[in-house]
Each structure stands twice: as C-alpha cells, then as structure tokens.
Amino acid sequence: MDLTDQNLSHFMELPDRDIFAKTRPFMDFMNALKKEEYFHWHRILTSPSEHRVKIHDIYTGEIREMVMMASNNYLGLTTHPRVVEAGLKAQERYGAGAGSVPLLGGSLDLHRELEQRLAKIKGCEDAIIFTSGYSSNVGCVSALVRHGDVAINDRLNHASILDGCKLSGGMLRAFKHNNMESLERVLTECDNEFNGKLVIVDGVFSMDGDITPLPDVLRIAHAHGARVMIDEAHATGVIGEHGFGTPEHFHVEGQVDIVAGTLSKALGGVGGFVASSKEVVNYLRFYARSYMFSTALPPAVTGSLIAAIDVIETEPELREKLWYNIRYMMDNLRRMGFDLGRAETAIIPIIVPDERILKLMSREIHQAGIFLNPVYYPAVPKKLSRLRLSLMATHTQEDLDDTLAVLERVGKKYGII
Ligand SMILES: Cc1ncc(COP(=O)(O)O)c(C=O)c1O
C-alpha cells in the first residue's frame, strides 16, 4: 500500500455499500503503518501524563520511559498534591458520580462553586460547566445560533466549534486566520443577510500556538453588532498576568460576550465551561442539549478542578517555569533552524512540509524516547504537516535538552535544518 497518497480523509470518502465497508481498508491502512513503525497514535500510558511517562511500546512489546512532549497538562496539575487531595476528599464526601443530569438532580454545591470560580477568573457574571470542552462548544454554539443567524469562524477554530455550527440551525461563514480585514469583509457581507451574528475565535490556536488579536476582533465584531465567543482551551492557566487567559492577556476582561473553554488542559482534569452573562448562562442550561441531556461531572473531578484554580491563583511559579521552558525551547529550536510557524505559547509546531519525511522523522523520534505527535492533513493544511510539541511547567532541563538533542540529530539527518 502506498502510504503517501492516502490519508485519513481518503477512507471517509469511500462509498458505503455496506455500512461497515469503510472499516476494513482503514484497518489495512493502519496495519500497514504499524508494520513500518509509522503508527504513533493511541500510545498506551502506564503512568500519569507527566513530563516523563511510561508507555507500552507496541513495537518492542516493552514498558519504556519516554519524555512526554504531547500532554496538555501545561502546569502539571494532574498530579499536583493539592489537586489530587481535593479530588479524593470530594469523592469521599459525595461518592463516585453525580447521579443525574444537572437539571434533574445531578447538580452539587461543588458544581456551583466551580462555576462561580470560573466566572470570576474569566471576568463574567456566571458560568455553566459541561462534561468536556467538546460538549461545551457544541452545546453553546448550537443553542445560540439558530435559523436566520450566522456563526463567523476563524478558519483555524477547533473542530468542536465547527461541529456546534453544523448542529445549529444557522449558517456558517469563515474568515482568514487572524486576518482582521477578512473578518471585516465577512461581517460586512453578513450585515444584511442574517439576524444574529456570532464571531468565534480560539484564544490560543491548538495546532499553531498563536494568539487571536482579541482587541481587534472585539472592536470589529461589536461595530457590526455581532457578539464574540472565544475558546480558551489552550489559554487558561498559560497566558495573562495571573494565567486567567486571553481577555486578561489583552486587558479586555468583561468585554468578551462568551468565554468558553476546557477543564482538561492546564486545569488538569476533564470538562468544559461557558462563562457569560447570567441570562446567557441560564438560557444555556435549558437549550444546550449537551448540558441538558448529559450527567454532571463526577465529584472527584469537580473537587480537583476547584483546587486547580486555587493553585493557579496562588502558585504563579508554575506558570513562570512553564514560560521559562517555552522560551528555552523556542529559542533553541529557532537557533537550530527549525520553522516554528507562528508559535508564541506552550504549543510549538515544527513544520515538516513533506509528509513522507515527517513519517520517517516521527519514527526515529519515537525510537529515541521522545513522545510527540506528527500532525498530517486533514488536521492541518497540506504542506503544513508538522511535529507538535506541547510544553509543561514540570519539564526538567534534562527533558528539554534530551528533546532538543534528538530533534537536532533527526532534523539534520532529514534535511529539515
Ligand atoms: C481549542 C480546543 N477547544 C476545545 C477542545 C475540546 O476540549 P476537551 O478535550 O475538553 O473536550 C480542545 C481539545 O481537545 C481544543 O484544543
């Protein structure tokens, strides 16, 4: 099988004579990748998602240690003693599960506490929590954008936002990534065509690590009578003076109409949230179907998340260490000659335009004990395939230097630098 001409999208386009027809060639494709040791998805960890992990290596059959460069546990909070302790205490007091969907008996005082803490750090009146960042985006967008409305997206917004748009009764428009002229143009085109307009951007973009120009987005959108929603998945805990995210980074707290995000990255747990006015939050409790029809977050997770916010507020040294690590890696990778695109946060893409070379590189990087992910089309545009690093506060100097040494060796070998 030619591994270069086929990618995941190929299998989604196969005709469905039997509904399972697509699964066999997809399995063959995966097995062919495995045979060549190109398959690096779904690696199984036998340890916490920390700066060094143990994995079950399908190629050697052994448990081996790797430097983890692919976790979104930016501040190391998944294993922070205060966070773990709070989760255990909540589990002891409230049990293992919430027992019901939030509106029908599953709402704990712990959930409300978490919502209020999130609202506060995001500079909003209130907040609502969901069981994932995916479901908060899907629920929020599909509830608000209705027939006659339009959702106007940065082209690189996360898939969950696009899925929310598809589920909504409204129309979907896109503007060029971080391009304010393009946003203005699309808004002008939409002015007379639609009722409500919702401009949606990621705070930090998940494949490029760059930051949305939020003050400009707000100015342009509001001038056209549009509301603005921002997805803070990779910004919370990472940017802003206190780690409160993109609005704090740009000093525009209280001006963003909807601040959404996930609880699964820097906050170290799982779940999602939407912070906004009391009216919007109240509306979402009844119209966001992924909230209404899904059981509330487990107590242990909720307790841990409240403690995670405490840690973000009281231990700024974690964020400072994360930023030391980000700068150290970016400076050194750029000095070596790697193309890091527009990276400016904890997500660092290393652009490898040729997918064939990316496959070879990622095989060698895995063999050398560095855990990071190759990202191919259609997850990113063609010719912009990449290795995606994400940094953590808990990475040691040795982790960083080991990673740099492997990347330099492999990058030189394949002519990337
Ligand atoms: C920008 C962005 N939004 C939303 C999500 C979904 O969050 P979750 O993993 O909590 O479902 C992710 C990542 O997974 C993301 O990168």
List keywords for this structure.
single chain, alpha/beta, Aspartate Aminotransferase, domain 1, Aspartate Aminotransferase, domain 2, four-stranded mixed β-sheet, 15 helices, 14 strands, 15% strand, globular, binds pyridoxal-5'-phosphate
Quick structural gist:
With 417 residues, the chain is of the alpha/beta class. It contains 15 helices and 14 strands. It has 3 domains: 1-35, no CATH class; 37-68 and 316-413, Alpha-Beta Complex (Aspartate Aminotransferase, domain 1), CATH 3.90.1150; 80-314, Type I PLP-dependent aspartate aminotransferase-like (Major domain) (Aspartate Aminotransferase, domain 2).
Please give a structural write-up.
This protein has 417 residues and is an alpha/beta fold. It folds into 3 domains: 1-35, no CATH class; 37-68 and 316-413, Aspartate Aminotransferase, domain 1, CATH 3.90.1150.10; 80-314, 3-Layer(aba) Sandwich (Aspartate Aminotransferase, domain 2). Helices cover 41% and strands 15% of the residues. A 7-stranded mixed β-sheet has the order 4-10-9-8-7-5-6, with helices on both faces. A 4-stranded mixed β-sheet has the order 1-2-3-12. A hairpin with a 6-residue loop joins strand 1 and strand 2 (52-56). Helix 3 (81-94) runs antiparallel to helix 12, helix 5 packs parallel to helix 6 and helix 7 runs parallel beside helix 8. The mean pLDDT is 95. The structure holds pyridoxal-5'-phosphate.
